[in-house]
Write a structure and sequence with these properties.
0% strand; mainly alpha; single chain
Length: 154
């Protein structure tokens, strides 16, 4: 029979091991956001099941691995759209999204406006602003959707 303190020590060691693997998954998403990544591939790389990875990632970081990946892609898309030299479709492909519809929907939820509207508005709003400041000012909201506009009653 195991001593209770041994059980606690093993549980804590397992938790720390999971956190290390979760950090590696998050770092991989940050590096390879433009690559075709899915939860199963991320889980295989972390030697975890997809379900366990998703549950533990959400507990540790407040959102699913897919949600985190899409947020990173949208952040990068915002930067590319501010430059103004690429079309929305080109930006969608450059950040690793294969569906323009899914990209536009997720972008609109995070940023509060469609990519084409953001491209026109942000290009004017950040003129003359250092890129490091523009990045902070225009960063999308994480873990919550952009506020929806109040309906106008006629």
């Amino acid at each position: 029979m195991c001593h209770p303190s041994w059980t606690r020590a093993l549980t804590e060691a397992h938790r720390l091991s999971d956190l290390t693997r979760l950090r590696r998954v998050r770092d991989r998403i940050d590096r390879e956001y433009a690559q075709p990544l899915d939860v199963e591939a991320l889980a295989r790389g972390a030697h975890m099941s997809a379900g366990h990875l998703s549950r533990q990632f959400r507990i540790a970081y407040g959102e699913s691995p897919y949600g985190y990946l899409m947020t990173r892609r949208i952040e990068r898309a915002m930067t590319l759209l501010r430059r103004g030299d690429l079309s929305v479709t080109e930006v969608c492909i450059a950040v690793g999204c294969s569906s323009l519809g899914t990209f536009s929907t997720r972008f609109t939820k995070l940023v509060g406006m469609p990519p084409s509207a953001y491209r026109h508005q942000a290009a004017r709003a950040t003129v003359g602003m250092p890129s490091c400041v523009a990045k902070q000012v225009t960063r999308p909201l994480r873990n919550r959707e952009a506020p929806t506009p109040e309906p106008h009653l006629a």
